[in-house]
Amino acid sequence: MRKLTFEEIASQVERLCIEANTVIGDDVTGALKSACAQEASPLGRSILEKIIENNDIAARETVPICQDTGMTVVFVDWGQEVLFEGGEIKEAIHEGVRRGYDKGYLRKSVVQDPLERVNTGDNTPAVIHFDLVPGDKVRILVAPKGFGSENMSALKMFKPSEGIEAVKKLVVETVDKAGSNPCPPIVVGVGIGGTMEKAALLAKRALMRHLGSSNSQPHLAALEKELLEKVNALGIGPQGLGGSTTALAVHVETYPTHIAGLPTAVNINCHVTRHAEVEL
Amino acid sequence: MEAIKLTTPLTKEQSKKLKAGDQVLISGVIYTGRDAAHKKMIEAMERGEELPFDVKDTIIYYVGPCPAKPGQVIGSAGPTTSGRMDAYAPALIAKGLKGMIGKGLRTPEVISAMQEHSAIYFAAIGGAGALMARTIKESEVIAYEELGTEAVRRLVVEDFPAIVVIDSEGNNLYEQGKEAYRKK
């Protein structure tokens, strides 16, 4: 049986925390460049140019793209044929976060008790989502999540009779209400179906998808396209100062749901749509 | 459009000339403060104590920077969402604060305090913290060190890029810009 140790997991998470916070994906850069070429507002274009320049500096100097280096969300797809040795898997991940945020000079933005609000000082704990998958590989995806955008997210439990129109309205209204707060151009993750928490997780997962990719189901790909056009027609634009680029992408993910429900979650990400992953 | 060069302190005379949509380059001393520091400052005012700095004609930058790497003045330092400071801003504006740098929407209460006292709301580019850190030449924690990234810092900036979003007459580029580009 394949084995992975505490140190292997911790050191990978450490590396991924620094990489995700300093190097933006080529897909995001590509989306920003094409938005810049199409943006109707001159001020909007100049903002997009500065964002691209910022991301270049961050990658070149290994400094954080944004000072909000986020709460660390970690997706772990653990192959069920892999054995873990040397302690607790969760603790290995937290240790990786602790080291990454220290060595990478990343901001520590986590408070221990949500009501008493004392900073933990090392950005732990991470929010970890485990999935058991077939095989002998482990995939770890680290996605630091800034809260300017996280705070603008929404979830509704619709009646099935309200249907797709209610879903569209929620997405467009959530983006409209968020305005300049989540640092547009944004990426919109939409989760439809499952239960309340499943919809939220689908929306988060949708943000991890490669920008420029479409849902493999044609009716959902069409919904993504329609929603992107609708949110970009709002006029919010780069940084909310007006323009034709409010979102770089809308990604929709679905899951079967109950006969009585239509849970819908909208998770907003800023233009710093960060993640880094490894397969072990 | 040519950017307007501004040097702090920001007087009433200067602030009245600025219009929503103006691009500015700010130089001089500015102060940082976000959620926790604002709460502490307002509590200090309520107890009749002095603030960590004289807010008259100053600019507060809503930022919680990253730690500085060796050789850096400050880590990445872009704006945070201003709305969380809305509950505290009018009291500081009434005390003479002339400028706020952040991102995102403000409440009508903040805007009316700005109109009454000729204050300006500037937006910096959210998510461009590496770029903005380069314009910060000095950084010193002057209060609430225990708050870590949320401590009050005195910064010296040189050509810090920002955009006037809400001017002293209440003109609001967030509204004007959206209206201009919205497809009806």
TrEMBL record, chain A:
PANTHER family: FUMARATE HYDRATASE-RELATED, L(+)-TARTRATE DEHYDRATASE SUBUNIT ALPHA-RELATED
Keyword terms: 4Fe-4S, Iron, Iron-sulfur, Lyase, Metal-binding
Protein name: Fumarate hydratase
EC number(s) stated in the UniProt entry for this protein: 4.2.1.2
Fe-S hydro-lyase tartrate dehydratase alpha-type catalytic domain: residues covered: 12-278
Biological source species: Heliorestis acidaminivorans
Family: Belongs to the class-I fumarase family.
Transmembrane intervals: none
GO molecular function, one term: 4 iron, 4 sulfur cluster binding
Automatic annotation (TrEMBL), chain B:
GO molecular function: hydro-lyase activity
Alphabetical UniProt keywords: Lyase
Native source species: Heliorestis acidaminivorans
Pfam families: Fumerase_C (PF05683)
Lyase found in the keyword field: yes
Family label: Belongs to the class-I fumarase family.
Organism lineage: Bacteria, Bacillati, Bacillota, Clostridia, Eubacteriales
NCBIfam families from the UniProt entry: PRK06842.1, ttdB_fumA_fumB
Residues annotated as domain Fe-S hydro-lyase tartrate dehydratase beta-type catalytic: 3-176
Family matches, as InterPro entries: Fe-S_hydro-lyase_TtdB-typ_cat (IPR004647), Fe-S_hydroAse_TtdB_cat_sf (IPR036660)
Protein name: Fe-S-containing hydro-lyase
